[in-house]
Amino acid sequence: MTNETAIARHTLTLAERTLSYVDFGGPGRPLIALHGHMSEGMSYADLAQRLAPDWRVIAPDQRGHGASDRAADYSRDGYLADLEALMNHLGLDRAALLGHSLGAINAYQFAARHPERVTALVNAEGCAALGLDGANPLAFVLNLPTATTPTKELYLVQLGPFAPHFTSTVRQLSDGTWGLPFHPQDIYDSEEQVHGDHWADWTASSCPALLIRGSEGGVLPAGQAHEMTTRRPGTRLVELPTDHFVYANDPAGFAEAVRDFLATT
User: Fold this and answer.
1) Is 83 helix (H, G, I), strand (E, B) or coil?
2) Are strands 8-14 and 17-23 parallel, antiparallel or unpaired?
């Protein structure tokens, strides 16, 4: 298990913006873990413990999330530039990449553009074609309050019917007030820009890959998952009996699948 005293948070300055990341430490090989929308790097704490000591998990708070600053845009190129800057900052010529949802698409698109820097790829619920019907499933976030409050209790009151879903997410911010560690408009804009036909990116890299799908309510359709496996050589598919949040709601199954796969790379 990871020694909790080894966990450290660091920052990287990009132009006038700060990117925060968590290094879970340890002597293992580097695994960069990218979270999905409305999440953060610390969401991989359980996985880091389960993969230690063989793997050293490094998990950034992606732009506009957690302790990282908001960005001017949430484009595909912007997310990938952040990842490249982080790897350069860490002195990593190559690393394994793991991502969930938004983070999974970021990971395989980075592998498509920088195949020489990615040793293995874990894609959890990241579609190769997403949102082609034009609908934004995260449009509801625009109804979330953006004004912070002096106490957590007051912010939960502001959340109204959304409170049960975001209670664990509300936190005290750097200015001492309470709110969410993301801005709703950023999340909406980011979701809009992650939509598209990404088949060319998914099939562009050749490193070993693991595709993990939640078979009970995940966003990755079964048919697309199987097509992603057949169209990209060297890809293994694992389906877990849970929903979209595979690593949070089946942590043991998720970690076992990742550990077994990485052991073969």
Assistant:
1) helix
2) antiparallel
Where do the domains of the chain lie, and which CATH numbers do they carry? 4-129+197-262 (3.40.50.1820)
DSSP letters, 142-163, are GGS--S-BSSHHHHHHHHGGGH
Note whether 11 and 89 are within 8 A (CB).
no
Terminus-to-terminus CA distance in the chain, angstroms? 21
DSSP designation for 207: S
If one counts every other C-beta atom within 10 angstroms of the C-beta of residue 233, the result is 10
**Residues in CB range of 209: below 8 A, 6 or more apart:** 108, 120, 121, 122, 123, 232, 234, 235, 236
Those residues whose C-beta lies under 8 Å from the C-beta of residue 151, and which sit 6 or more positions away, are 178
- Tokens for 27, please give them: 């002597």
The residue assigned the tokens 């007030």 is 177
Compute mean pLDDT per 10 residues along the chain, 265 residues long, and list them: 71 95 97 98 98 98 97 97 98 98 98 98 98 94 97 97 96 95 98 97 98 97 98 98 97 98 96
CB atoms < 10 A from the CB of 69, how many?
Answer: 16
According to DSSP, residue 18 is labeled: E
pLDDT at site 2: 44
What distance in Å separates the CA atoms of residue 191 and residue 189, rounded to the nearest whole number? Answer: 5
Between strands 196-197 and 8-14, the pairing is unpaired
pLDDT of residue 5: 52
Dist. CA 106–CA 124, nearest whole Å: 11
